[in-house]
UniProtKB/TrEMBL annotation:
The protein's name in its UniProt record: S-adenosyl-L-methionine-dependent methyltransferase superfamily protein
Keyword Transferase applies: yes
Entry coiled-coil feature ranges: none
Organism of provenance: Forsythia ovata
Methyltransferase domain span: 39-126
Keywords: Methyltransferase, Transferase
Pfam families, per database record: Methyltransf_25 (PF13649)
A Gene Ontology molecular function term of the record: methyltransferase activity
Entry-linked InterPro entries: Methyltransf_25, SAM-dependent_MTases_sf
GO biological process: methylation
Amino acid sequence: MAGPFDKQAAIYLDARPTYPKDWYSMLADCTSHHSLAWDVGTGNGQAAIGVAEHYEQVIGTDVSEEQLKYAIPHPKVRYVHTPLSMSDDELVTLIGGEGTVDLITVATAVHWFDLPRFYSVVTLLLRKPGGVLALWSYKNIKVSPTFDAAGLRWFQTTLPYRNSKVYHHVWDEYRTLPFPFESVGLGSEGNPLLLDIPKEVSFEGYLGFLRSWSAVATAKEQGVDLLPEGVVKELETAWGGAKLVRTVVYKAFMLAGKVKL
């Protein structure tokens, strides 16, 4: 069965933001060792290659084989397909065994996970003491007052095609996401660290971002085009023209912690 992002895998790489390098530096400063990291839900490896600048080995895993076809090669990153049928014991062995992982990262994906199961695996794998789990995502993009209003109108058309059980954690910036780990000063349960991701984006790049949304693919499967020509033209006008490159800000949030001893 196809995953929620399988059909958009080819455009996902170009459409999504890259995470700031200083994020990886501040996470690396929180771990006592820098031997092994695990990037979960790695997709095309955007986070994995950032983590690899600070750790000797990174394992990037994903349930989507299609996403992994577009994974960015890096000499210190090994990408592995981990189907949902894989047992927890198999997964722990694959990653490296109990107490071996210094940093576990989940970029814009944990809201899709079976959290109790995932946290159980995390607790087994993290080095104790010294290992850290970091989760982050982003909610929306700030462009300009005019464009933000047009973007909000379009966003409201996607709501019937969204998985509310999954996305409510994104809407509230992970404030209600269970996170039973001891804070390392980078967000804690109920109190995420709020962050900005600035990026230079063309209008076509922005459209690519919208087209990579799972809601757009879901609507298309139901015969609904959420980005018809008229809507694209309205967004383009609000943007300031098809050729204009803007500095936009993705509004992000993070939770990071270690196993409570």
